[in-house]
């Protein structure tokens, strides 16, 4: 295998790298393990005391929370580090039968879009909120790649509390980057779309790609105290494909950088059409200047149609607002707003070192990693060292902004993060390794194999001013031979690597949920002390809350029956209900009366075609149910809550349509029938 890799590294870049992309599987086959036996490379890279370094004793906590994107499952997975223990799955863009998210009446609005109810998305990039360039543990922002959306997760509850759809966007991939004090979350489109500025996206011939298609970069303003998002304005940019983004620090903190590909503006067979130019571009955008232009009236307005969904803290209920317009800037009308830096063709990752001086671009098909200098970029702008323009945007000369190139780093560089000690680490997709190199001389100093085809890598705080340079997590795309077989669909994997010394050492493999793309991690003590234990019952403002058992009721209005129910260890009130008819729409509004940590209650009824609801202490959740036949239907608590959990159940009687059975309900002793509401 080593001979093959060396030959490929030294081969002519264009031919060899295209060949190795296709030959990736063959290279992985060379690294195959035999059962549980590690290869020599793994054995030499494995820390001698790995088990003790990742062991977290029973009752003890991990050092870090890590948040891994779920990719095509639309969720975020939370793991403790260094143990690799799965702590929680947070549903964001997907329905989740475990707790009723996306099924309950309170949460369904979170998944509304201009395309209707969309209970799925492709979640790629978690980004933690920041204060003074450092993660602050308040919120986690994530992107929906497929139906363009940005969501905010509240880290006091680990729940999705806000989702905003993005107009004029398709494939919201280079997203969501929070600026260093959460002034904005910035999101770029992967796919350009046809825009006419008067009516948004339109019906045009696909042959008109070069003339009518444009990209967009959305600037989402963030409330500094509450975290609430608002789409302030967009920049409509040339019709390239915008892949990934990252922002500056220190001297470059007013800037955000985007990798682009398809500078050819090819609309078909992009693997050929978008690989014609020798270079694509790194787009540099001065976000502070953009905000200034927008504030000073430079922004124009165009029609739009997008949803903004927000969970109300008091009612525990989401509401949707439909927005009908958006402001936009054109970079060609805004001097100094945007510049293009030539970069290796089809670049993927863009990463800025902790000092804010170096911008590292990973060209998937490049034989070297270019490192751009921010100070040289500023000097080149000042001296107008331009090499033409694209759509009125100046193109800087490659040599004028280049600090250095990292030579022979490996095959298929994708992403780079930093340890805060002068070292950079780059993932190599094709040669399946992590490569360590020095920022002072741009020389490779170490490499470690991973299994297999690593995509993103993450160092806790590795994209901030002060990384937590102890661990690195490699997120791998292929894991054959690594775990027990699970059928055709293989487990995805992460590997924890010790980077505290000169040589990288493998500590741990752990399987991950779905396909993680990127991750973020934060010291646990920035999050754990603020964790909500339960909701205060007296602050519950739900429209159908029952704060004590005497508030329970069953009422009818036409063919709608509302059940205000309470749950407490170990019974529900009411637990006997009669008078419901076939075809009625029944809403079970269940309030958990507990005011103690770790006592959720669930609710489910036989024949429900959505999901259960899981109600946290002090909260109210609603299950909608439409009975289709007469009979007696049991309902019960689905979450084990006490020794008498099994006894926490009841019955609902459904009579034929038009029956004269009156509404009645009870718990223990029968109560008088309630008066039907007109």
From TrEMBL:
The keyword Signal applies. Coiled coil: none annotated. GO terms for molecular function: copper ion binding. Gene3D superfamilies: Cupredoxins - blue copper proteins (2.60.40.420), YVTN repeat-like/Quinoprotein amine dehydrogenase (2.130.10.10). It comes from the Bacteria. GO terms for cellular component: cell envelope. Keywords: Copper, Metal-binding, Signal. InterPro entries: Copper_CuA, Cupredoxin, N2O_reductase_N, N2OR_C, Nitrous_oxide_Rdtase_Sec-dep, Nos_propeller, NosZ/Cyto_c_oxidase_sub2, WD40/YVTN_repeat-like_dom_sf. PANTHER family: CYTOCHROME C OXIDASE SUBUNIT II, NITROUS-OXIDE REDUCTASE. This is Nitrous oxide reductase.
